[in-house]
Each structure stands twice: as structure tokens, then as C-alpha cells.
Amino acid sequence: MKLYEHFAENIAELIRTGTLKPGEKIPSVRTASRTHNISAATVFQAYYLLERRGLIEARARSGYVVRNNAGSLLAAPQLSDNVQARHEIAATEVDVSELVFSVLDSIKDPHTTPLGSAFPSPDLFPLPRLARSMNKALRDMSPHAIVSDMTSGNANLRRQILLRAMSAGNKYTADELIITSGALEALSLSLQTVTNPGDMVAIESPAFYASLQVLERLKLKAVEIPVHPSEGMDLDILADSLTRLPIKAIWVMSSYHNPLGASMSDEKKKAFCDLIAEHQTPTIEDDVYAELYFGNQQAKPLKSFDQRNLIMYCSSFSKSLAPGYRVGWVAGGKFSEKIARLQLMSTISPSVPAQAAIADYLQHGGFDRHLRKLRDTLEAQQQKMLLAIEKYFPTGTRATQPNGGYFLWVELPPHVDSLQLFKLALAQGISIAPGPIFSASRRFRHCIRLNYGNSWTPQIEEAMKILGRLIASF
Amino acid sequence: MKLYEHFAENIAELIRTGTLKPGEKIPSVRTASRTHNISAATVFQAYYLLERRGLIEARARSGYVVRNNAGSLLAAPQLSDNVQARHEIAATEVDVSELVFSVLDSIKDPHTTPLGSAFPSPDLFPLPRLARSMNKALRDMSPHAIVSDMTSGNANLRRQILLRAMSAGNKYTADELIITSGALEALSLSLQTVTNPGDMVAIESPAFYASLQVLERLKLKAVEIPVHPSEGMDLDILADSLTRLPIKAIWVMSSYHNPLGASMSDEKKKAFCDLIAEHQTPTIEDDVYAELYFGNQQAKPLKSFDQRNLIMYCSSFSKSLAPGYRVGWVAGGKFSEKIARLQLMSTISPSVPAQAAIADYLQHGGFDRHLRKLRDTLEAQQQKMLLAIEKYFPTGTRATQPNGGYFLWVELPPHVDSLQLFKLALAQGISIAPGPIFSASRRFRHCIRLNYGNSWTPQIEEAMKILGRLIASF
Hints:
The structure is a homodimer of 474-residue chains.
Chain A (H helix, E strand, L loop, with lengths): L2 H14 L12 H8 L3 H13 L3 E4 L3 E4 L3 H4 L17 E3 L3 H10 L6 E2 L12 H14 L4 H8 L2 H13 L9 E4 L1 H13 L5 E6 L3 H9 L3 E8 L3 E2 L1 H10 L2 E6 L13 H14 L3 E4 L24 E6 L11 E4 L4 H9 L7 H13 L2 H26 L5 E2 L7 E5 L6 H10 L2 E2 L1 E2 L12 E5 L6 H15 L2
Parallel strand pairs in A: 4-15, 6-7, 6-9, 9-10, 10-11
Antiparallel strand pairs in A: 1-2, 3-7, 5-12, 7-8, 11-12, 13-14, 14-17, 16-17
Helix pairs in contact in A: 1-3, 2-3, 6-14, 8-14, 9-10, 9-13, 11-12, 15-17
């Protein structure tokens, strides 16, 4: 991180924690330069960065002030229909795929404003640089690697993934690492390894809809554990459910949860790992947004607190670098060998050229520089979307303000039907992700997930305005 | 096909059908040139090609003569332990994966002479040309395609596959075409679409071991239908089994069968399609060796005779062009939509760059030229391996002589134990594929599959000699 980025981050932290409040002036360039003993140019660069990130704005005659930080005005979601007594938690047959597909099919049109999409804009990724890496990697590749890399995976890619894991405080070994066709294959093979049809699996409520679909495909039953909008899974209810029900596995996103954006604290992560150790419960950790954190510090994965090798840690490059390349991985703990064999019986191997290209990029392409830019962009776009919600959506709307990823979870007034809203919005060329696709029991009827992973354009501003009007019409 | 290739093929056909017999002289260059009204240079080119393919040889003072065609001396396998009364055919629990993995794991060492490998030598593929196609395709790709091509597949690749299908006499539509991560994903998703755990599936005996592993993974039972070493699946037994047993699906390789190399005749393929139409049995056709035919004419797939859309036709580029790219497809007939959805719940999509590279190669790279060369090479290597078997293996050895692919099925004297032979050979640095891995009921104990997909080197000649000695030692 460069000096100006470091300085900007210090100020951002003061804003985030409320030490600097909306409307408050921040030190002038001259003052800051003198106080911190850094050049005026560096301060300028830092303020410019904070402005781009939507945290401060220039005001005539006042210099820079902290922006009316939208998140601080919007209340956090209550997820009131997610509150259940412990004894009410039971297993649900999963039957949500039809609904999910009907939603996904209808938002494929490239002219739709993609607020319901699961992907960030491809313009955010260094695709031309990655193409150069592909070119180089294929030129250097021995013909025999095209066959031998299928079973073991590209050796350089494996090394790069292990190095990044190490520097992020995660810990797993080369032995347990399996390269997969994206994170979804990693997750799906992991779950398959530790379950049989009919088994119960604890998942989050709300949960990423693809996890519900995988459960449905594998004929597994869902035990839905409520997730707090910022603090993550309810561990009391999880503990109780593990005691009462024959739960065979847990599927969890402990950081930058999709759709809520919640992250568990380190203490909570430790407690989670104690809990699964006590019950010896195999756990699938979905950490695909790991690199998309805001602020100084990446959240630690559950895996880094796991003493018993119970966690199958799944991630990918699809959200941070190369959607469409379909390269992910799983560090499978004690289940690695089984997962590897299952892969040989399903797809054999992810694409060898894609692995080689990403390996070269990680080594030479400037991944960290790209990620810093990507995070700033996403944080700025989050601010803009929160402001638009505040401006256009009816009073009583609540929204999360995650510290990573590119999704907002928006809780609308209770009488709003998000499936109905989905249809109305689509008729206007706008997609949203309606709440019930994130639940095996079709809760969250008045909630939606919005994607802020696209450049903030007048088209998106307009779409937010239309959405606001549609919501008000209920 | 060029004129000299056409002329060479006419002569090859005369040799194959026995019109020209081993040792017999073929017309002199001058005579052939005059008779067929083609230039002497063209005849030379044709004879040179036939020589490379191992069909003729130059003899001092006699000009070119037909070679002692090895296949004509070796008897065809009898598969005697495959003969069963119809009423003995029953469902078998599949439990062969451990055995298969123990074999596959032990032959990974790159220094092993890979006669047991499932892959042909990567040197046979135009990988540098394909890398150029990758480079061009990525340069031309819009960033948005990297996301949008995930769900629909690369549009140009889809077009190229449909065009090739059309010109090969196959018939399927864009609607039913799904691009997959290699053929194995296509096959595995197809089977999953039409079965539930516990169901019975008719498979071939012997069968490609990966199909047995997929059955095992999906907890399906195998009904093993004997395959004739050159004519393919026994339709009488299949018909009887379909009547007697609740078979939910069939998995079949109707052309260039792995491991036997058998191909059904067109009449038999028609009869097969009548049979599945009568029983309305969903059928998975594995046609991965389709492009590796010897002679003039590609075998027609079952799919081209299917009036009822019951056939899920699966193939890939892994054997013909680009192993490791992991690009295959399925034309799923009436089951397409279900297959596509299952894929979205498993791996989402094959790698987008790999799809784009192959599409560009198919359009501009000279695929047909490459394939003609590849077929000639494989046919020549088959001849050399048959000659080596004749020379080094004990009397009583039988072998197939397939008209495509790169496998020989070798039936050894009945007292030879191929699992034992496998271990002895491996100790000498030679891999073979022992018969029992091709059978849910572990038949074919005295059979092996040999791969002739590698350039014929002194190392391979020596390996065949050692194998012969090991076999004789039983």
C-alpha cells in the first residue's frame, strides 16, 4: 500500500467508526501535511481517493467535509421474519430451484439494468492483462503439461494460491488443495463428499440461492440458521440445532456474506470452530468475496481457526479477477482425497490454459494493485447506491452497509411483495433479486438484494428512481 | 481431401477388404499413373502415405507390396467369459472405483511407458496453433462476453459444432446443444438427469471404467450387456433385459468403443433406436472417438437414427484436438433443459477462454487437415503395435483390430492374471490397463487394453518385448 493510500485509509477508518461525523470538516491540505509530516501532494492524492470512494466531498469555501454518509441514516434490516424460537428450527425439503431459474432466466437480457445480477461488471477486471498472461503461459507450456496438469493442477497456480493464503493468515497445505471449475464445483463436490441423499445440512437464512439449488440437486434437507444482518450466523441456534438434529454438514459464508454482507468477528469464528469440533461436523466454507474487503484488513476465514481439519475452504477468482475463466479451489481438510476423487468422476479437471493464465497473472500481473482499485471502486459505488436508496426509496426502507462484496440487502416496508416488485421492475427493464430466492422456506418476501458492482451511470441512477416509485406504489 | 489422399484411400480400402492380400504387389507408379490418369507425383505421394500408415512397404526389385498386415494373423478376441444366458443378466452394485483409482494413481509417473494411459500423446495435437487461436480470440472478445458466454456458451463454438455435426450426418439443433467441461461432465449430467439413486442402468461389458465410476458415484446399479469385439452391443440381450428389468437409462459407445474398438453397423444402430423407442429408454451416447476413424467414412452416431429425441449425444475435443482445455458438449434431445439446469447447479459453465480458442481454431486453424494427419498416424501406430504383439506375445494371444481410436483390446491365454501382470509390468516401468477395471463384475481377468496413441519409439518396442516375456512367464 502506498503512503497516500495508507493516509486515506486512516481517515476512512475515522469516518467509518463515527469519529469524524457527516458534515464535519476534515483537516486542510496544509494542516494535514504539516501535522503528519507528509507532502501536500500526498494529502491531495489521499483526499482525491476518499472523494472517489464517496466518503468526503469538496464544498465551496469549507474545503473537504465528510459526506452525508448514507449508511448512517438508513437503519439496518431487522429480518423480523427470520426470528424463530430455537425449537422451531427444523429441516425443510428444498424446492426453490424453479423459482430461482425463473428469476435468473428472465434477467439474462443484456439490456436490462442488472441490479439483480450475481456478477459485478466485467469492466472491473483486468481482462486484457490477463489475456497477455494467457498468451505467455501457453507459449511456455510443455505439451505434456496439457495432460499432466489435468490431474494435479497447474503447479505454479497451486503455489500462488498457497502463498496468498499464507499472507492472508489462512492456513492450509499443498496436500489438501484441489483446483476446481470455479467455486461452485468446489462447494458442490465438498458437500457431496460428506452427505448422502436425505441428510440434513445446516445453511444460512438467508443463503446464496445456488447453495439451496445444490442442496436440492443432492436431495438434501435444509436446516435454516438465522443470520444477523451484520454479525453473521446465530451461533446459539446453530449449537442448539447441532444438538437436537442429525446435521451432517454446515455450509457457511463467514465473511462478506451473500446476500447480507455480514461478517462474523474473529471471536465468533473461534467459537464456531469450537462448536464444530465438539460435534465433529464437516463444514463447507464459501469465501468467494474474501478479496473484496473495504478498509485495511481482510477478514480471516473460519479455516484459519480450525484445529481439526473439518473445514473445506472454497474460493475462486471469479469475483476478484476472472469471471468466466472458471477457476476456483478447495482446501478440503481431512476430506481432500475424497473430494479429489469425486472430481475425477465428474469433470476430471478445470481448464488447463485458464489455470496457467491465472498463475502467470498472479505472479506478474499486479493482482494486489488491481484489487486495491477494485475495492475502492466498489466502496464508492456502495455509497452511491445507499444515497440513492435514501433519496428514492420510501421511508421505512432499511439497508445493510457491508464492509465488502458488492451486494446490498434492502428491507422494504412489510407490505411490499418483492416477487411482484421483481416483475414490475423487469417490465421497466430493471432486474432485482427478490428475497424468497434466498430461502428454502421462501421467507424475506419484502426484501431484495441489489448489486452495486456496476459503474454508477445515469441509467442506474434512473433505475433506482423507478424502483423507488414502484415500491411506493404498493 | 486431396487427390493423392483419395487415391491412397482407394487402395487402403482394397487392402482392408482383402482384395489386395499381404505380400501382393500393388501397381507400379507408372501403371497406376496411366490407368487412373493421374500424375506420377500424385501416385508417389499416395504410396508414401500408405507406407507411413504401415499398409504397404517397398521391397527391393518388387516395388511396393502389401505388408504382412498383422491384424490378419492375430485372431479376434472371444470374450468367452462375457457369454451369458439372457436370464443370467442382472443388476450389479458398482464398486470398482477403488480398483480403478489404484491403477490410475500408479501410472501417473511421467517416466512410465504409458501403454495403460487413456490419453494419446499430447505431441499429436496442434497446441501452438491452438495457442494462437486463444490469443486472437481473447483479443477480440468483448469484456461482457466473459460473463454472458458462461450461461449460453460461446456462440461461434456452438455454430462450429453444429456445422460439423451436420456434415457428419448427425442431426441435432442449437436448442438442445449444451457446452460442457469435457465429455465426462456431459455424460455425468445426462445420466443424472434421467436417474435416481438405486436405479438400474444398462452399460456395456466391457465398459469404459469412468462410466462405471460415474454409476458408482450416482449410486446406480449396472446391468452389463455383452459387447461383441467388433460388432458392438448384443441387441438381443439388451432387448430381453429392457423387457425383464426396470432399466432407466442406457450408456453406450456405438462407434470406436472404448476399450474394444467395436462399431455397430448402421442397420444395428437403426435397430437399437427402434428398441429404445419401443421402451422409451433415455440413452446416453458417448461418441468421443468420432473423429478418429480410419478409412474414408466416419461412422454415423446413434443420434442420427433417433426419431424420438431419446438420445443424449455426448462428445468433446479432448481426444481430437485439445486435451486439458476441457471443452465438450451434449445434444440432450428432450432432456436438454434439465441437463442445462443441472449444469448451472454444478459448475455453471466450462471455461470461456477455452471455448473461444477452440471456436477460432475450428473456423481458421485447419482442423480437418490436422485430423487427416492424426488418423494416419494412429492407423500406422496400430499396425506397429499389432505387429509387436504378433512378434513378442505368446501364441494364443488374440487382439482387436479397430477401425478407429487408439486402443487395442488384447486377450491373453486364459491362465494369465492381468492384475498380476499390471503389477509386474509397472515394476518394469510399463503401464497397462488390466481387464477387470472395465467391468462392474470384474470380468476380463486375462485381458488388457493397450494404448497405441504414442509415437512408436524403441522404448515402446522394448516395452512390448518385456510385456511379452512377462506374459509368457505365467
